[in-house]
Amino acid sequence: MRVFHDSRQRLHAPAEELHNGGFTAYAEKPERVDAMLAALAATERPEDRGLAPVLAVHDAGYIRFLQDAPRLWREAGRTGDAIPYAFPVVGRRPVRLTRIDALLGRYAFDATTPLGSHAFEASYWSAQSALAAAHAVLSGERAAFALCRPPGHHAGADYCGGYCHINAAAVAAQAMRDAGVGRVAVLDIDYHHGNGTQDIFWTRGDVFYASVHAGPATDYPFYWGHADEVGEGEGRGATLNLPLPRGTRLDSFRRAQGAALDAIARCGAGALVVSFGADTWAGDPISHFALETDDYALLARDIAGVGLPTAVVMEGGYAVDALGANVASFLSGF
Ligand code: OKP
Ligand code: ZN
């Protein structure tokens, strides 16, 4: 399988994150890339398709913010990574502020996503890798893998969060639409709900979003991913949420994924984007499912059985020592 990755995706390396009330080492670290590269055959550098496909799903003011934030942070006299601390969640009127701290709160939905000086660059190339995979399958590959990092599925049209800045899966799905695929499906099987992808396509019927994830009653991102979220307007029925309890093992995960695949097969999609997270693995340090390495091959075989051209986009997976084997197992199923 063709694998796309750019070494600039490694540059983003925040020192610490706010985790359960204290600062700990950043879980979404560049060593994740090394672990995946070591387990895969040769990779290709993606072509640079520019900002237009990114701006097809993201707000221009938000993208400018990602580019400017590190400079504004330094100009405010700060060192280290930019971290938000005040959020306009109480329905304040939209005010046009330029102070870095105000911008951070406006454009981030959590405080766990530090913006180092390379956040934009790394996420830009992560999105280009996803675009390359999308174009590979549009040109006839059965499946292609985008070794994305930073992940993207928590990033909405105008917000970052959950280690994500640019939503690579959404960029890839939109590129497939723009290339003429009438309907695209996104299957999200990261441990965490992909709130950003859901939000981006919430009112649209042309991109079907299905997610299997840890239930929001116990797990991040809490405010999205409930079973009764089905989309709105034209998008009503084009969102499917299948939350599962902590401790979930292969049998019930596979059943839920099967329900998502049935819906995808019925929705008339001409191509598929898979947001793949290996944080469903039993030993993941920040998650609570119990999948084993071999399970991923079986899950991927089920996905391949739907018979759609498929761009696999990497999301989470934080047990670095097992990450290569888990990703290789998943890709072997195609
Ligand atoms: C990104 B992806 C737990 C805080 C949660 C954010 C998790 C982001 C996961 N104390 N931190 O979906 O793998
Ligand atoms: Zn995750």
List the SSEs and their pairings:
Blueprint: E1 2-4, E2 16-19, E3 22-25, H1 31-39, H2 52-55, H3 60-75, H4 100-107, H5 119-138, E4 143-146, H6 168-178, E5 184-188, H7 195-201, E6 207-214, E7 239-244, H8 250-266, E8 271-276, H9 295-304, E9 310-314, H10 320-332
Helix pairs in contact: 1-10, 3-4, 5-6, 8-9, 9-10
The structure holds {5-[(3-aminopropyl)amino]pentyl}boronic acid and zinc ion.
Cofactor: Zn(2+)
Family: Belongs to the histone deacetylase family.
Domain Histone deacetylase: 28-332
Spell out the key features of this protein.
about 35% helix; seven-stranded parallel β-sheet; Arginase, Chain A; about 325 residues; alpha/beta; 9 strands
Major β-sheet annotation: 7 strands, parallel
SS element count, helices: 10
And the CATH topology? Arginase, Chain A
Number of strands: 9
Could you explain the architecture of this structure?
The chain is α/β, with parallel strands linked by helices. The chain has a single domain, classed as Arginase, Chain A (3-Layer(aba) Sandwich). Helix content is 34%, strand content 13%. It has helices at residues 31-39, 52-55, 60-75, 100-107, 119-138, 168-178, 195-201, 250-266, 295-304, 320-332, and strands at residues 2-4, 16-19, 22-25, 143-146, 184-188, 207-214, 239-244, 271-276, 310-314. Strands 1-4-9-8-5-6-7 form a 7-stranded parallel β-sheet, with helices on both faces. A two-stranded antiparallel sheet has the order 2-3. Strand 5, helix 7 and strand 6 form a beta-alpha-beta unit. Helix 1 packs across helix 10, helix 3 runs antiparallel to helix 4 and helix 5 (119-138) packs parallel to helix 6 (168-178). The protein is globular, with a radius of gyration of 18 Å. Zinc ion (ZN) binds next to loops. One of its GO terms (molecular function) is metal ion binding. One of its GO terms (biological process) is epigenetic regulation of gene expression. InterPro entries: HDACs (IPR000286), His_deacetylse_dom (IPR023801), His_deacetylse_dom_sf (IPR037138), Ureohydrolase_dom_sf (IPR023696). Keywords: Hydrolase, Metal-binding, Zinc. Belongs to the histone deacetylase family.
